Amino acid sequence: MSTEAGIDVQRQLESLIQDFRTSDPPMPVIVLHAEDPADDGRVIELVDELREGQQGHGTRLAVASTEPQPGTDTPTARAARLVRDLGDPGKWGDRSAAYRPYSFPRLGLVRALQEATDDPEMREHWPTAPAGTPEGNTQREQAQTRLLRILARQRWRPRRPPRRQILLTDVQQFLPMGVLGAFTALLTRPEWYIAVLAGIGLMVLLAVLNHVPGRAPLFLWLRGESRWFLTTTFLQSAARHQSTSVRLLRPAHSWRAIAARAYDVSEAMREGGPFPLQLYVLALLEDLRSNHRRRSWDLRGFKRTSPPVLFLRRTGRENGGIELIRAVSDVRSRRSELDPLLIVAGVAANDAPLLDRGADGTPRVLPSPSRSRLQQRLRGWYDEWAGNLRADQSPSRTNALPWVLRIPLPREELVELRDRRCVRAGHRPPLVRVVWSVYSLALALLLVCTAGGAHSYELHRTYCSAGLLSANRDTERHSAPGAGTECVGIATGDVRFGAYLRDTDDEEADEQGERLRALENRIHDENARVLRNHSGTYVTVVYAGPLSSSEVNPSPVKGVEELTGVYLAQRVVNENHTVKMRVLLANGGADMGHQSETAGAVAAYAERDPTFVGVVGFGRDLQSSPEVTDRLHKAEVPIVSGTNSASYLPKDFSNWFSLAVPDEHQAEALGHVARQLRAPGGTTHAMVLARDLEGSQDRYTREQAVYGEEMLRREGFRMLRTRDYRVVNGDPELRLHAELICQGKDVPSVIYFAGRVEDVGPLMTQLSIQPGCANKEISILTGDDLSKARFSGTGGSDGVAPRITLYHAALAELEDAAPSTAFYEEAARHLTWIEQDRLPYTSRDFASGQTALSHDAARALYWAASRQDVPQSRAATWVNLRSVKLDRMATGTIDFTEAPLYGERHGHSILIKRVRRTPAGVSEAEVLCSRTAGDAEPLDAKECSIK
């Protein structure tokens, strides 16, 4: 600053700015004038220096155009034009000023109303008849319609909108809608980019609709300026008892209120007088208050730590400056809120009394300038002014301008100094500008996007069906044996296990994969029909089986056959019964390797679905089977298994029901054959060849080995050492064991094979070429897993070696039960892919018995869950299972009525088959003896004669 007066005034301004950072001090209109009219030019120079100093300090400021303007406008009109020009954000500094540019939506709305009022099209539409008369009311309605049409054409904005106004002016309203659209899309768990496109598409659609020519903008009633326009008390006098309610869910009601208020204000502005100027000033001050509001989403009030300053260089009556200052003081006196605008005006000495008159109209006498320095006087004057605001705003002070602080500057204070000085208050950037800024927001968004991307990646890596931020947690991804990934859990929503099956070079595996996908689609369609048409009258059954493939076992044949039986049971039930059956699929992984995880998913599902009544499946006996059964037992879920032949499960768990004859009973039945194979009066050697279970979950083969060895010892065989063979990468290592067996001192005549069906072929190959076995009659006994083999006589490619006879147990006697069951007729109607060129029970689709057993298990569970044609609870279903007795099922009579609690029941379907090679080189299977389900009479050696 070049003068002492400039230094002192600058100090006072910086003191106000410093106070503004911590509080909301009242901001005066500082009027600077010289004591001597000859010094008016120096006062203008001082105002310019103050402007340059504040601009260098980064203060947001504007300079009103107070140069003389041509024309005959009144001072009030000139003052209104000054305020209108201040609605351009570019006049308040560029982006180098603190934070972002100002916005003036309220001032823009008032400008739009003024321009619509002055539009030539409105001149002939203003009402001429007196208000309140029928003709006057009609003219008023027509004028209001015309005014709204002009405003809509202007988009309720000034004709020349401020710069930086772009297409998405209302993005603050469209953005929440876009986020809502994206979030709604996320609920359907699509790909992340679909949700993003949904949000962006909704925003673009709203933006296009918002700018349709000739129509009012969308969400006009939700704009901040519209709410202010309806609720400010300043305009209440202009309203004619119209509603001022703005409601989010009542757009028509809100629109009528805005339209009525717009017309009332337009009429008042047309009448002229001080009202338009004061309305402009009110809108400007309210916009500045909003631009410095601390309680806002962007915390802009904490970032803009300096008040905006308006400089009036040459303030006079002819340029409207005096009227502008008067209007600011009048508006502030009527309102209770403080605004941040600080005005610095330079006034000619002769015009200064116009801005400071007492109650009697005489000039107020200020303290003598010679009493103290100007700096001390300035502080005292400000404190006195702030303390007298309450009294000076009283209505009785008719000519007072309470918000004006007049500062007379003596000549000696305006003398130019040799050295210029810069006065600036201590300033430190606010913490909130660092913490809550565009850069911190970008960093936060980057971190959120990174975390969201990592979370989304983890969801997609962990779960089978996942969106951007959510996932279906009923199914999870797990590594499959060998390589690859399989989907494990219970399929809810849009999960399909068939989608995870890989294409292979195995024709049968690919065929089974297509069959699985078709079954899933059919079950899904049937479930949808049940939910759509029979809500409240259905029960939900879960099938749990091996619905995956792996490199080791590429074909899910067991799961597909069992699922076929469950689907057939569903179709038959839903066609013939009032209570419908809904079926959900649960995948235990390839060979049920992840059945523990599946049991956890089923138990969790049971907690939230009261229609869920039980499980069909878990057809493999593994090391985890006790844990699985116990987990579902605690969840009060009954299990009806069609093919799991574990002897210990019904003894240990009351929720376990199985249609498969236990391993112990199978060994007893094979004992009738073994007794006939032992040479009478001599020594017959026998041995057990079993899978090595190290690193394996298989428990079935261990049970078979234990019961098989007990049976052979009981029948009088001399037992050789049990041999365990390993399985490496799906291939059994049998060559060394075959050599030791066939080239040993004692070659066994009977081998009890405790292995899986896929290991029989390599065993036959090794025994048929080993010296010592190739020319010896050998009998191999094994359990029910061999029922899955497809020998040449049943349409398959499996077979036995010459001079080797295979005896195995099977779980389903289909031939004797076929004449009295409708199972095959129903299968022909609903399973269109079933072969019809052979006896139905010998068809490759039914020969293993797994389809029939799972069908009967599902029917038994459904019967317990729908007793008396009423949907039963899960607990009631568990109880009702012990009263199930169903005749004419695919395997005979399913009877649980005699099943002891924690004990083995009798009456399972069972048969003993013999497979041997014919002279024609074809493996031929024949049934030695059998029992259909429901027949509890035990087999005997005479009935199972091998003669």
3D architecture notes:
Keywords: Coiled coil, Membrane, Transmembrane, Transmembrane helix. This is ABC transporter substrate-binding protein. It is a single chain. The protein is an alpha/beta fold. A hairpin with a 2-residue loop joins strand 22 (about 885-890) and strand 23 (about 890-895). The termini are far apart. An 8-stranded mixed beta sheet has the order 6-7-8-10-9-11-12-13. Strands 14, 15, 16, 19, 20, 21, 24 and 25 form an 8-stranded mixed beta sheet that branches. Strands 2-3-4-1-5 form a 5-stranded parallel beta sheet, sandwiched between helices. About 45% of the residues are buried. The model is unreliable at about 165-170 and about 355-370 (pLDDT under 50). Helix 5 crosses helix 9.
How would you briefly describe this protein structure?
This protein has about 950 residues and is α/β, with parallel strands linked by helices.
Largest sheet: 8 strands, mixed
Structural class: alpha/beta
Distance between the termini: 127 Å
Strand order of the largest sheet: 6-7-8-10-9-11-12-13
> What overall geometry do the principal axes of the alpha carbons give?
elongated
Assembly status: single chain
Question: What fraction of residues sit in β-strands?
Answer: 5-15%
Mean pLDDT: 84
Q: Give the helix level as a range of percent.
A: 40-55%
Number of strands: 25
Q: Stretches where pLDDT falls below 50 for ≥5 residues?
A: 163-168, 357-371
Treating each run of at least 4 consecutive H or I residues as one helix, how many helices?
Answer: 28
- Rg from C-alpha positions? 47 Å
